[in-house]
Amino acid sequence: MRPTFSIILFTVLSGAGYGLLFLLGLDLASGTPSEIFVVRGAGGSSIAIDPRYGLGVALAAGFILTSCGLLASVAHLGQPWRAWRAFSQWRSSWLSREGVASLLTYIPTTAIAILLFARPDAHTALRLCGAALALGCVATVFCTARIYSSLQTIRAWHTRYTAAVYLMLGLFSGALSFTTVHVVTIANGGLWLSARWVAFGAVLLGPACALLKLLYWRHIDARPSVNAGHATGLDRIGDVRSFEQPHTEENYLTHEMGFVLARKHSRRLRSIAFWLLLLAPIAVLPLNARIGLPIAWLLCMAGIFVERWLFFAEAKHAVMAYYGR
Global pTM? Predict the structure, then answer.
């Protein structure tokens, strides 16, 4: 498949945004933000930090990431003003379900923004909204993954690894986004307890995501390619070959679904994505948190961008078997 920048941008940004909001929702559901945290200030003094400040900025960052991702997906459409029609097929279309889930997720996001600053003492309401936000984020990312994994005509996508990769990478990028927002917004670069646990989880998630992608690549490499005999169902009779090409020049199918990536480029890009995901949270550990975490976030996003480009570039649609490709 031909990689499209807008779709890659959508999946990368929205994955990080929903991962961030998921962790924020869990943080709220646990009741942790009701406390006042103390961080070390200049000269060893202690400074009390109202958690609403960091959580509010994290909420805004998640909102911006998800909204920019969704707008990028709308820009991919030939007629963006008709995007509202995609919501009507939610009974059968994973794309429609993704749209509905993404819009529903805005409800607890807005409610949390109001409660944090208008009714910070409404702990029960904040916990319920946090739980709803976390569930909405998981549902949205899962629906995004199912758009691709449900396509039986593309063997590289129709696998159990697809949804797992989307969810894990979203959680990984969201964890780094969550901790980066916290450490940047606090003037002294401190991390309170919940953010420290998320940062520790991100260190473990990096190698886990790299290993999962390695297993995915091995899986798709081991699967047999679709040929003309398999596509027509005549392979049990004998060898099937095209007598003549269906078209004499490039058309929409060959342009969009006939993208071919050289094997040497594929190996090189796989290595880049693998090492970026593996080393992103680890390589910056010796650095100060305020310097290291933004670097780790950039490395992570770059790795996911390369991984997502490969996700599309290495996918081969079954229709190309009719063209002998």
Answer: 0.87
**Phi, then psi, of 42 in degrees rounded to 5:** -65, 140
Q: What is the DSSP letter of 49?
A: E
Separation of alpha carbons 301 and 43, rounded Å: 35
Start-to-end C-alpha separation, the chain: 12
Three-state secondary structure string covering 170-211: HHHHHHHHHHHHHHHHCCCCCCCHHHHHHHHHHHHHHHHHHH
Q: What are phi and psi of 260, to 5 degrees?
A: -120, 125
Query: Residue 37 — pLDDT band, cuts 50, 70, 90?
Result: very low
Tokens of 77: 């459409």
Which distant-in-sequence residues (6+ apart) come within 8 Å of 76 by Cβ? 4, 6, 7, 10
Please count the residues of the chain: 325
How many of the other CB atoms lie within 10 Å of CB of 27? 23
Closest CA to 282 of 169, 194, 173, 200: 200
How much is the CA Rg of the chain, to the nearest whole Å? 22
